[in-house]
Write a structure and sequence with these properties.
Layout: E1 4-9, H1 18-26, E2 50-53, E3 59-62, H2 71-75, E4 81-83, E5 89-91, H3 101-105, E6 112-113, E7 122-123, H4 129-133, H5 139-143, E8 149-153, H6 154-167, E9 187-190, H7 209-217, H8 220-253
Parallel strand pairs: 1-9
Antiparallel strand pairs: 1-8, 2-3, 4-5, 6-7
């Protein structure tokens, strides 16, 4: 099955927040809870999508990137964070044990924890997966009055994005944000303003975090064997010296034989 995706055209967004309202209604998120641990970007366990002000002007969607090789999925010890056949990063609250590794692993700081609940869960966008299974688009896409959001196969969205960049080079920055960063993501942007504030600042590189983690973990067996060998050798040398010293002390402490 092909990877699906969502393309955001920042130049078309007017900040009406109708996509946010549609997300709340479609996913039955209810009233938002304001607590000290909640960041001031509009995202929370009850708000999976937010429209934020770009530092250089304009309005920008902030939500789960649905990374092609997602760090949150790779660190989840119980499979609560997992990927669908369409490549959407999903969350199963029945499996979640509340370790919050996904929060720490996400390079974009997206998943949010329900801190004020006795049975907390993690909140994040999942592209209205239930609606997709019924042949519908994500609620945010359907609600956008400016057609700033386009949902479909990721490869086709990339073709659309690059076509718009070629057709209007003066309108957009020459880049599809999310095409390559950390291995690429299903949520992508074309924009007339820099999106560094969303961590698209070049510091993350293009290799997925799970690959970088494996580079280190793959060396653990070798390092362990070498360390064990060195320690074994060191213990052997120390043991031999201690035996030699003990033998020397034993010889000097013996009384001389009679007649000598």
């Amino acid at each position: 099955m092909k990877q699906v995706g969502l393309l955001v055209d920042v130049t078309r967004c007017i900040g009406c927040n109708k996509c946010v309202d549609a997300c709340v209604m479609a996913n039955h998120l209810g009233a938002e809870h304001h607590i000290p641990q909640q960041e001031a970007d509009g995202l929370s366990a009850q708000r999976w999508l937010a429209i934020v002000d770009a530092p250089q002007g304009g309005f920008v969607r902030k939500s789960c990137r649905h990374c092609l090789d997602a760090a949150c999925v790779s660190v989840c010890p119980v499979g609560a964070m997992h990927k669908s056949p369409e490549g959407i990063v999903l969350y199963d609250k029945q499996k979640c044990m509340g370790c919050r590794y996904c929060l720490m692993a996400c390079p974009f700081g997206i998943p949010r924890y329900e801190w004020d609940s006795p049975t907390p869960v993690v909140g994040k966008c999942f592209f209205c997966y239930q609606r997709l299974s019924e042949g519908q688009e994500p609620a945010c896409v359907e609600a956008c009055p400016q057609q700033a959001l386009t949902f479909g196969e990721r490869s086709e969205l990339l073709n659309l994005a690059h076509a718009r960049l070629r057709q209007s080079p003066d309108k957009y920055l020459p880049k599809v944000f999310g095409e390559f960063e950390l291995g690429g993501s299903a949520l992508m942007y074309i924009s007339n303003v820099p999106l560094d504030f969303l961590n698209f600042n070049g510091t993350l590189g293009e290799r997925p975090y799970p690959e970088l983690t494996w580079d280190w973990l793959s060396k653990v067996p070798a390092v362990t064997l070498v360390t064990a060998g060195l320690m074994t050798g060191l213990f052997w040398i120390i043991g031999r010296r201690m035996q030699a010293q003990l033998a020397g002390k034993t010889q000097t402490s013996q009384p001389p034989e009679e007649g000598k």
